[in-house]
Design brief:
The complex is a heterodimer. Chain A has twelve helices and ten strands. By secondary structure, chain A is α+β, with helices and mostly antiparallel strands. Chain A is elongated and about 125 Å long. In chain B, β36 and β37 form a beta hairpin. The chains are: A alpha+beta, B alpha+beta. Chains A and B meet through α5, β1, β2, α6 and β3 of A and α2, α7, α10, α12 and α13 of B. Chain B: It catalyses: tRNA(Phe) + L-phenylalanine + ATP = L-phenylalanyl-tRNA(Phe) + AMP + diphosphate + H(+).
Chain lengths: ~375, ~850
């Protein structure tokens, strides 16, 4: 860089002459305009804005000028450099836009290509449906209770008012666990695979000691049926128990109505029919309007319904007012408290809700069956 | 209980327009489960008439004997000429009355009848069998055939040309009712009629209201040794039965429609009266009884042959009917072969009979029937409760029918042995049904409904209710409430919602089960729910050691399959079966999971006692039940085979391997908020070099919770699995115990990260997890994360060595780290690894 020189006349400095600066500027602008690729523009950028470009060199000379000349020369060079960098940016944007348009077209792919690199997993619909049913009641304030699947006969039968000779306690219905002496001794163990989720009723009452008790219990149960299209020895139920002061059958009916409406739609209705169960009195069988035909197949031979056999109603399960004997066996005062209970087969509900035709599909663990159900149901 | 509508109308004057479906709906409302309404004779169209066989020409030369007949059908064919009919059956003779269907008629099953050429003749119609008319083929054959069946041969008194549709009552509706165990009375026409009358608000003609002569001392002698087992025994005698008497058509038809097979007149009458009144009866051939009829318990091991010809060894609890020789009947279950009514065609046909109408204890009959696997119609009724006060009426009805239909003479002797019982009463507040139902019925309605059921009711605010003899099931106030509510209509109950106290939602454990399922499904695993039944042979296939605790199983006394008598102690057998099944069905790239209980016997096996039910059991009593149950922890397991990542247009796939199985364990542990410790392990089912032992820290101590890795090739072979199947199983309850509770949020520093890579050379058998733990411990608090990004083995390292390359990221919470600080932290990390594992910085 030249040393400052008080007597230096700016006009005398060749590079700072106005026409020189204009020429430098114009050359730069022309070079940018002529650049037709980003690479060419980069070259022009180095040539016309880089450290050794004519305008940069001219700028350096300003420092050598006497103070009175600096301002004018600085202004002149600055304006030129401003114009150049603006033109550069504009051209840069222009060429980038052109490139983008071209390259993005070139980069286009077939988005219809399949992508199943890692196949999705899924939870079993029986699991997710049980959760969904339970959640309906959890939302009402019920809690979820659990119990063992290998259960004492007392919980599974006696506490529920099944007499020792009740037919359900026979070998043709119930899996019995071998006694401690083994098979040959034939001794009894007093232990069974629970035949229903109802023993959890007794457990819940005994654990909580004093009503109110509002619980649901989803779970696995066992009966000695061979597997076929409509039976399975291992299946699932959901049990409900409410024990409180002043509970009535009308409360039972309302709770059932709420459940089917939450699970199957607001227009669903239930129907109670008298029935008999040892652990409820009065007892009822509960039906809901057929989910498939909504009752329209009744008396309508042109539109038969396979789901309900054109009956218009589907049997869901048993229910009733908790037998006072059950309350007594569980230490709850039947004079003070009453309760209601029901239990439903989950498989059956799933079968008509999702049009499952064969029980075995829910049992065998075939991924083709389970996968479409995903995470929730 | 099958109830023909035509029969039901005999007791209740139902409107003529009322169909079976209408009655079904009404009965369902009051609580009788009418499952179906069978339409008998649906689509049947005449002419179907009585015909008299005039001639029979046997046609020769066909594969089976064929008859060409002429039959007099009166004027039913319009001409009065004999009808020419070809027939393949042979159980009729010239002069027999048969049922003839003429051209133009339609038989059940849309079977249109027309004249047709067959066997070289033209057949103008058909001679019918019971089956062709949809009435069952039993009990209709002519006396000349052994077993019945074939062509219907009618009694001779019916005129040729008579309409047979009406004669044989072919058009009817039958209600099929599934009777619940508490409603024994509904196993009779009388009981169903009572419900029908109440449902329609019509009067009932009670068939049990008969004139019965008073008991006297000259009836057949009966002695009851066990008045608990038998509290009532009526015996009547009828003599002089005509051996040739047959059951009339109406009797046979009613039995058939009710689902019973006509046998012989005396037996048919007993069955008919049982159906009508619900009282099982037994008819003895009097000439075969010797001396006094007795009722007692059997001797242990006493032998007796029942009517079905089976010789039975009796139990000391069995109640038997005896004569001087010994047992002649299993009380309430089945009679004996030694006093059976002789068939009317055999020599020495029965002419004199003794009728038994008794009442036996329900439980005793149930046990005997079950013990001898004899589910008779009589036992079915006694088990559910028979009206003891209908016994004499039933005996009388039987006597009347034998006199009427068999030409017998009723002897004047009437035996009745009765153990006195008090009527049963229940007291309850008059508003009890209201409080059970949540509806205000009012006292008047309650009383009226109970009276309709057959109760006597006294009292105002508190009712004293005497229940009818046919309702042994009514014992508690709630039983009476049910009667009122069902007759008022369950369908009229309002719908209200109780107000439970505010709930606390799911427990942590319940949430964890859901989270684990979601996380595994999210990682590509599909849930399978397998049966818990296993055979113990699977433990050998899984390569478990002889003393492996998992070999101790809970066994079933009555397994579905003798191959699988035990309950699972591991989820693997079921899950691997599902894997194999999927593979066999063409799905080869598989990742399955299951969470479920396993069943582990306790050290000491105990019997679960029978606790009382009349009070709350004590805590000790409850604990005694718990001690008799196996431990039932929840396990989680996964199995993998085939590709974990598929090959495709994007490039290569990746086979599932041991690391995926271990990763699944980490996924589960992560959901539980637990740090999983993975160590090199060895356990039967797994490849000895590719087995991770999974541990968690519970109460400061590391406990093993399971294993993961590639299965042992021997196991893969023994179980027929795809090569290199991988698996993981862990005890989810244990993992849950190790959880820290609520997660504490990490502090996020916004200062820049300082990255340092190190490659350490260690002996090949030093586990990477150990090296990583050293680096982590040595690096101190500045270490934000550590990641192994390469494992390398090669000649330049020397034999038995491997290089582990780690990326260490350092960051401080309060400042930007200098290069020197990061390097110093790295150096202490490496130094600790060097000290503990002999690691050498690569290139150093």
């Amino acid at each position: 860089m030249s040393a400052p020189n008080k007597s230096y006349d700016p006009v005398e400095v060749e590079a700072l002459k106005p026409e020189e600066i204009e020429r430098m500027r114009d050359e730069a602008l022309a070079a940018f305009a002529a650049a037709d690729t980003l690479d060419a523009l980069q070259e022009a950028k180095v040539a016309h804005t880089g450290g050794t470009s004519p305008l940069a060199l001219a700028n350096r000379e300003i420092g050598a000028l006497p103070p009175q000349a600096k301002a004018e020369a600085g202004k002149r060079v600055g304006m030129a450099r401003g114009a150049v960098s603006k033109a550069l940016a504009a051209r840069q944007a222009e060429l980038e836009a052109e490139r983008d348009a071209r390259v993005l077209v070139e980069e286009a792919v077939d988005v219809t290509l399949p992508h199943d690199r890692t196949p999705a997993g899924a939870r079993h619909p029986l699991t997710t449906f049980m959760e969904r049913v339970a959640d309906v009641f959890v939302a009402m304030g019920y809690e979820v209770a659990e119990g063992p699947e290998v259960e004492a006969e007392w919980f599974n039968f006696d506490a529920l008012n099944f007499t020792p000779d009740h037919p359900a306690r026979q070998m043709q219905d119930t899996f019995f666990v071998q006694g401690p002496q083994g098979a040959d001794a034939g001794g009894e163990s007093g232990v069974v695979l629970r035949t229903h989720t109802s023993p959890v009723q007794a457990r819940a009452l005994l654990e909580r000691r004093e009503p109110p008790v509002y619980i649901v219990c989803p779970g696995r149960v066992y009966r000695t049926d061979e597997l076929d299209a409509t039976h399975t020895p291992v299946f699932h139920q959901i049990e409900l128990l409410a024990v409180d002061e002043g509970l009535t059958m009308a409360d039972l009916k309302g709770t059932l109505d709420h459940m089917v409406q939450a699970l199957f739609g607001a227009d669903m209705k239930t129907r109670l029919r008298p029935n008999y169960f040892p652990f409820t009195e009065p007892s009822a069988e509960m039906d809901m309007v057929c989910y498939v035909c909504r009752g329209e197949s009744v008396g309508n031979p042109d539109r038969p319904c396979r789901t309900c056999g054109s009956e218009g109603w589907i049997e869901l399960g048993g229910c009733g007012m908790v037998n006072p004997k059950v309350l007594t066996a569980c230490g709850v005062d039947p004079q003070k408290y009453s309760g209601f209970a029901f239990g439903f087969g989950i498989e059956r509900m799933l079968m008509f809700r999702h049009n499952v035709e064969d029980m075995r599909d829910m049992v065998e663990g075939d991924v083709r069956f389970t996968r479409p159900f995903g995470m929730e149901i | 209980m099958r109830v023909p509508l035509s029969w039901l109308r005999e007791y209740v004057d139902l409107p003529a327009t009322e169909t079976g479906r209408d009655v079904q709906a009404k009965l369902i409302e009051v609580g009788l489960e009418v499952e179906t309404v069978e339409q008998l004779g649906a689509g049947l169209k005449g002419p179907l008439v009585v015909g008299k066989v005039l001639t029979i020409e046997e046609l020769e030369g066909f594969k089976k004997p064929i008859r060409f007949c002429t039959v007099d059908v009166g004027s039913a064919n319009g001409t009065g000429e004999p009808q020419e009919i070809v027939c393949g059956a042979r159980n009729f003779a010239v002069g027999d009355k048969v049922v003839v269907v003429l051209p133009g008629a339609v038989l059940p099953g849309d079977f249109a009848i027309a004249a047709r050429k067959t066997y070289g003749k033209t057949s103008h119609g058909m001679i019918c069998s019971g089956e062709e008319l949809g009435m069952g083929d039993d009990g209709w054959g002519s006396p000349r055939t052994e077993s019945g069946g074939g062509i219907i041969v009618l009694p001779p008194e019916h005129e040729a040309g008579t309409d047979a549709i009406e004669l044989l009552e072919l058009v009817d509706e039958v209600l099929d009712i599934a009777v619940t165990p508490d409603r024994g009375y509904a196993l009779s026409m009388r009981g169903v009629a009572r419900e029908t009358a109440t449902a329609y608000g019509l009067p009932l003609r009670d068939p049990a209201l008969l004139d019965v002569p008073a008991p006297n001392s000259f009836g057949y002698p009966v002695k009851i040794d066990d008045p608990i087992g038998c509290d009532r025994f009526t015996a009547r005698t009828v003599t002089g039965l005509r051996p040739e008497a047959r059951s009339p058509i109406w009797l046979k038809r009613r039995l058939q429609k009710a689902g019973m097979r006509p046998v012989s007149l005396a037996v048919d009458i007993a069955n008919y009266v049982m159906l009508e009144l619900g009282q099982p009866l037994h008819t003895y051939d009097r000439s075969q009884i010797q001396g006094t009829i007795g009722v007692r318990r059997a001797g242990q091991g006493e032998k007796f042959t029942t009517l079905d010809g089976v010789k039975r060894v009796l139990d000391a609890e069995d109640l038997v009917i005896t004569d001087d020789r010994g047992p002649i009947g299993l009380a309430g279950v089945m009679g004996g072969a030694n006093t059976e009514i002789a068939d009317h065609d055999s020599e020495g046909a029965t002419t004199d009979v003794v009728i038994e109408a008794a009442h036996f204890e329900a439980l005793s009959v149930a046990r005997t029937a079950r013990r001898h696997k004899l589910g008779s119609e009589a036992a079915k009724r006694f088990e559910r409760g028979v009206d003891p006060q209908a016994a004499s009426a039933a005996a009388q009805r039987t006597v009347d029918l034998l006199v009427l239909l068999a030409g017998g003479t009723a002897e004047a002797g009437v035996t009745e042995v009765i153990a006195p019982t008090a009527p049963r009463t229940i007291t309850m507040p008059a508003d009890h049904p209201d409080r059970v139902a949540g509806v205000v019925y009012g006292r008047e309605t309650v009383v009226r409904r109970l009276q309709q059921v057959g109760c006597d009711v006294y009292g105002q605010d508190d009712l004293t209710v005497t229940v009818p003899s046919w309702r042994p099931d009514l014992a508690e106030p709630n039983d009476l409430a049910e009667e009122v509510i069902r007759l008022e209509g369950y369908e009229n109950l309002p719908s209200t919602l109780p107000k439970p106290p505010a709930g606390r939602g799911l427990t942590e454990r319940q949430r964890l089960h859901r989270r684990v399922g979601r996380a595994l499904a999210g990682a590509g695993f599909v849930e399978a729910l397998s049966y818990p039944f296993i055979g113990e042979g699977v433990f050998d296939q899984l390569g478990l050691a002889a003393d492996d605790p998992a070999r101790r199983v809970v066994k079933l006394a009555n397994p579905l399959s003798d191959e699988e008598p035990a309950l699972r102690t591991t989820l693997l057998p079921g899950l691997l079966s599902a894997l194999r099944r999927n593979d066999g069905r063409g799905s080869h790239d598989l990742a399955l999971f299951e969470t479920g209980l396993v069943f582990l016997p306790r050290e000491e096996l105990k019997v679960a006692g029978r606790l009382p039910v009349d009070r709350r059991p004590t805590d000790e009593e409850i604990a005694s039940l718990t001690e008799a149950l196996p431990v039932q922890p929840r396990h989680a397991a996964v199995v993998l085979a085939g590709a974990r990542e598929q090959a495709g247009w994007w490039g290569k796939g990746r086979p599932a391997d041991w690391a995926d199985a271990v990763e699944a364990a980490r996924t589960v542990a992560h959901e539980a908020g637990v740090e999983l410790i993975v160590e090199q392990g060895q356990y039967g089912p797994w490849h000895p070099g590719r087995c991770a032992e999974l541990q968690v820290v519970v109460d400061g101590a590391a406990v093993r919770v399971g294993h993961a890795g590639e299965l042992h090739p021997r196991v893969v072979k023994a179980l027929g699995l795809p090569a290199r199947t991988c698996a993981m199983e862990l005890d989810l309850d244990r993992v849950e115990q190790a959880g820290d509770g609520v997660l504490r949020a990490p502090r996020i520093s916004t200062y820049p990260v300082a990255t340092q890579d190190v490659a350490l050379v260690v002996d090949k058998d030093v586990p990477a997890a150990v090296v990583e733990r050293c680096l982590t411990d040595g690096a101190g608090d500045l270490l934000e994360s550590i990641r192994l990004f390469d494992v390398f083995e090669g000649e330049q390292l020397g034999a038995g060595k491997k290089s582990l390359a780690y990326a260490l990221r350092f960051r401080a919470a309060d400042r930007t780290l200098t290069v020197d600080e990061a390097s110093a932290a790295r150096d202490t990390a490496v130094a600790l690894a060097a000290e503990r594992t002999g690691a050498v910085l690569r290139g150093a």
